[in-house]
Amino acid sequence: VVAHGWQFGASSTEVRRFAARVAEESTAARAHMLAVAAAFEEVDQNIEARVRSGLDQLGIPQSRLRMYDHHLCHAAAAVYFSPFGLQAQECCCVTWDGRGDFSSGKVVLFTPPPTAGTGGRSQSPKELQVIDSTSMFDSVGLLWAFVTAVLGFKPFRHEGKLTGLAAHGEAARTLPIFEQAMGLVQDLQTGRWQI
Fold first, then answer.
1. Any idea where the Carbamoyltransferase domain is (predicted)?
2. CB neighbours (10 Å) of residue 187?
3. pLDDT tens-digit profile of 145-157?
4. Which residue range is the domain that position 159 belongs to?
5. What pTM, to 2 d.p., does this model score?
6. Domain check: are 143 and 177 in the same one?
7. Alpha-helical segments (H) within 59-183
């Protein structure tokens, strides 16, 4: 079995959350958000085609491919190999990146299954439950990519260069410019934050 940490929009829950997030905005903002989503969909289709082509080249049948939620893969990697996962302790994990499967992050609760008298070893897989998620439009990663592009670098590729250059910057000069362009706003009805 070949596992891939991207569902390419297959999760109906994330599609509904995405649609609800777009519906919150003005007509002009909705048009822009849908254009951005269409561009990302094209990128995702290209990635999916490359994954499938690679399997074909390796002689691996498509039926062996399993796709999983992007952020649950991050959470599983973080939790299962942490002291919490290894010692079967309940914990909470937060993932946050550019985007994956319409989200930029998730809050995931890990609840270990009860042991079945097998020397502390579980008879069933561990449980990951999504508590909340953040839309790809409220992504710190996309904000970082935007700043990367504005400064003349390649977005989604040269963000590390900005990290290195930031140590040499003058925050007193640049922060006011950044604050005029971007902001963090809390929705007073839901309590959720948006970029």
1. 53-172
2. 10
3. 888 888 899 888 8
4. 139-195
5. 0.67
6. yes
7. 70-80, 83-86, 140-150, 159-166, 171-181
